[in-house]
Amino acid sequence: TMVPNLLLCLSFGYAAALRPTCLSAQFRRPGDYIIGGLFPFGTDTINLTTRSEPTSVGCERLFVDGLIWALGMKFAIDQINNSTSLLPGVKLGYDMYNTCFEPVVALQPSLLFLTQNGTTGIGVLCNYTDYQPRVTAVIGPHKSDLCMVTAKLFGFFLIPQVSYGASSEQLSNTESYPSFYRTVASDKNLVEAVVLLLNRFGWNWIATVGSDDEYGRGAQGLFLSIAANHSICIAFEGLIPTDLTDPKAQDQLEDTIKLINNTKVNIIVLFAFSQPAQALLEQSIRMGLSEKVWIGTEAWIMSDKTASTPNIQSIGTVLGFIMKARTVPGFQKYVADLFTYVQQDKFCQESREFNHLMNSDVVDTLCKECDHISLRNISSVLRHSQMQPVYVAVYSVAHALHRALGCTHHTCPKASIKSWQLLHFMNTFPFTVNGQSFKFDHTHGTNTGYKLIFWSWKNGTLTYLPVGDYKDSLYIDKSQIRFHTADQKEPTSECFRHCKPGQFKQIKGFHLCCYDCTDCPENTFWSAKDSTTCTPCLEHQWSPVRSTRCYDRSEKYLFWNEPLTVALLTLMSITISLICLTAVLFLKNLETPLVQASGGKLNLFALFALTLLCLSSCLYIGKPSNTRCMIQQIVYALCLNGCFSTFFIKSLEITLVTEFPHCAPTLLHWVTRRRAWLLVALCLLTECSFCVCYLHLGPDHLQPDYKSLPTEVLLVCTTQSWLAFALMHGYNGCVAFVCFLCTFMVRTSGKKYNIARGITFAILIYF
């Protein structure tokens, strides 16, 4: 007996499935206050490109998620109407329309929402404060590009609009969109989560693809700007078409896969809705793209249609972020009951009467496909669909209306409320939905955080496995993730390695973040992690190759204990000893004709000047200073002049005797005896005057030399005024040159003492 009964049930079920329902009539209900709804019941517009007249645009393929979101709004409003604490005694109505994911389609019901209550016309007024539009608030639409169009319209009338899916960062601008709200977070939060995920796994060589719409372009733009600040290199960035009926769409998808394959990346970040994402994944499977890690978003990662693509497991590993959302209690039972009711004639008759009260002939709901589906057709999507954002959006409007009307928990006055009066209460007051508190932030958005989802395959069955979460920080349970690699460990995707301390990034090739690690050269240091340059050390510092810091230079000058100093002092001592022996010998034989002929006491003065000249070498030993630098030149010039002045007197004497014998008796007394000392004093005074000019024009001063030695600073004396230097030492040169002219041509007998030859030889050594 059971088999015939089972066959009977199946036959009745099959007959019921073939029979059209009245589900499409469930999206309009009259009420005290009407809330508009914009939902994507369908996709694939049918007459948009060929449209030459301003006729309505429709779409032919049912979008199950959009249907479930619309049922979520209906469920929330039915709950509120049955509530005894929220808007007690007030009945909310609703009026929902199809957007087909197209701004052109969404505009028609949006204009209808703006019509004056009870009419089909929009009043043109100077002041819309008392204007009463058809709806009190609007829920939707889902996509950002649709919201940017509709939010401008509703923003002019300050009608609250609460989207359950638009996440574009541009919509955070409350000046441009003053009455726009959303129960999802901005794409900026999502992008930050994706960047943290990439950093956590060390993936810094990636490709990013976005759908060519407001969502894809906006999210990808945010991602590129944030990724650049986190050392993530974008090997490829591209957009894929959203209109898959375009003849060029297939070529664009092929080019995208080829370019991704050429980059050799292992990670692909995909910002796209389910349709373009599915098209890209199908193309990658057809072209045999090697297994990758695909990082997605809620826009496609939870799509059963995408997951049911043939051979989808071959794409590799899929990770993605979805919004944290609780399940709405009672919703699945509500939908199941509704699908039972829409098959009953009495229920359908009542629904059509309600539609008639809403002037349903003005704009059609455009969900004729809704009447030809069963609960079984949507059950898989119903289990995974994120319905809470729609549910919260409806409750946000209901709570604002509750406060605007001045309702209590028991009663609610039915007063005339303008739409703009709700904005104050939506901006400032939190509200509670099923025990969870919500509040719109300063950008009119909410952020409940994200869950990290992993596509877990087991025996050909897909499970959306939560493996982490993100709100203020990112948590990942890596033990639950099984990657497509042989050892199931995370793959690597790096264009570069992190440089070691002391190395900088030397850019190579086309990509700015693809580089070699190069050691910092001498006298530079590594100042920041992943720096592209090395910082030069300060002038008084040095550093070795591949250094992370600079060191102060040690001072270098002629120390007393250095071998060169010892050699110099030894030579000086020998020279002074020879001078002293000569002086003793001259002093002992001072009155002899030979000593008197060579100059007598003038010779002792010359030897004394030479002794001082030798001792002046000590001024070059030890740490120099400005005073030492100045004294060095003055002492050298005066001591040398003291010696040359005696040569000068003797040279004049020789010249008078040999070249001007007839004048010698008259002039010799000026260069001999006591008058000779007068000439010596005159020479010294002249040199002193040049020394004064030297001090006035600019004496030598201490100059640190940082270039000659690699790790030390050489303390040297440098000439400040070359004119003063030339005057002071040029005078001695002139005296020496006169002595040379007076003595080098003098001829004497080889058996006689030749003082002229001695002076000539001394002057040549000086030159």
- Percent strand equals 15-25%
Q: Order of strands in the sheet with the most strands?
A: 10-9-11-12-13-16-17-18
- Annotated CATH topology of the domain at 563-766: Rhopdopsin 7-helix transmembrane proteins
Could you state the CATH homologous superfamily of the domain at 563-766? Rhodopsin 7-helix transmembrane proteins
Count of individual helical segments: 23
Tell me the overall shape. rod-shaped
What is the level 1 CATH name of the domain at 563-766?
Mainly Alpha
Rg (CA only): 50 Å
Helix content: 40-55%
Poorly predicted tracts of residues: 1-17
User: What is the β-strand count?
Assistant: 27
Major sheet description: 8 strands, mixed
Terminal CA distance reads: 138 Å
Overall structural class, as computed from helix and strand content, comes to alpha/beta
The second-level CATH architecture of the domain at 563-766 is Up-down Bundle
**Average of per-residue pLDDT values:** 87
Signal peptide: 1-17
Transmembrane segments: 566-590, 602-622, 634-656, 676-697, 722-746
Organism: Phaetusa simplex (large-billed tern)
Membrane topology: Multi-pass membrane protein
Report what the structure shows.
The chain has 767 residues and is an alpha/beta fold. It contains 23 helices and 27 strands. An 8-stranded mixed β-sheet has the order 10-9-11-12-13-16-17-18, sandwiched between helices. Strands 1-5-2-6-7-8 form a 6-stranded mixed β-sheet, sandwiched between helices. A 3-stranded mixed β-sheet has the order 25-27-26. Helix 7 (249-263) packs across helix 8 (274-286). The model is unreliable at 1-17 (pLDDT under 50).
